[in-house]
Amino acid sequence: MLQWIAEGEEDWIVVEQPMASDQRWDAAFSGMQWVGRRSKRGQQEQERREREELDKLLEQNRLRVEEARRREAVEQQEKELERYQELELLQRQKEEAMRRKKLEEEAERANQMKLLGKNRARPKLSFAIGLK
Fold it and tell me: For the chain, which terminus, N or C, has the lower number of CB atoms within 10 Å?
C-alpha cells in the first residue's frame, strides 16, 4: 500500500511493508521504505490513473446495479405470469365444475320425470278442446 507524505514542495512516496533488520531506520520510520519523489507530472499522472480507476469502479457498480434490476424485473414478471396462470386454472376448474353440476341437474330432472311417468316426448292434450 502506498502512502504519500508531504515534505515541502515535493512529496515522498513510501511503502508500508516490513524491512529486513539490517535496513531499519530509527523507530519513527520503522517499517517504511523510501521509494522516490513524486513530481508534479507524476502527481498529475497518478491523479489521472486514480480517476480512471474510480470511473472503472463506478461503471462496474452501475452495471451490477443494472443487472440486479434486470434480474428483479424478470423475477417479478415470472411471478406475475405464474399468478395469472394459476388464476386461469382456477377459472377453468370453476367453469368445469359448474358445467358438470348443470349436467348432473339435467340428468336428475330426467330421472325424476321417468320415475313420475311423465315423458316430455308425449304431446300435451288440452281438455278444453274435447268439451264442446
Answer: C
Determine, yes or no, domain membership for 79: yes
What's the predicted TM-score (pTM) here?
Answer: 0.44
Considering the domain boundaries, does residue 57 fall inside one?
yes
Does 110 lie in the same domain as 68?
A: yes
Q: How many CB atoms lie within 10 A of CB 6?
A: 9
| 113-123: pLDDT as tens digits | 888 876 555 55
Predicted confidence (pLDDT) per residue in 44-69, tens digit: 999 999 999 999 999 999 999 999 99
Strands (E) in the chain, as ranges, are 2-7, 10-16, 32-38
Which among 32, 37, 49 is positioned nearest to 13, based on CA atoms? Answer: 37
Residue 3, phi then psi, degrees to nearest 5: -135, 130
Phi, psi dihedrals of residue 72, rounded to the nearest 5°? -65, -40
Phi (first) and psi of residue 122, to 5 degrees:
-75, 140
Examine the domain organization and report whether 23 and 78 are in the same domain.
no
Q: Whole domain around residue 24: which residue ranges?
A: 1-38
Write the DSSP symbol of residue 132. Answer: -
How far is Cα 100 from Cα 110, in angstroms, rounded to an integer? 15
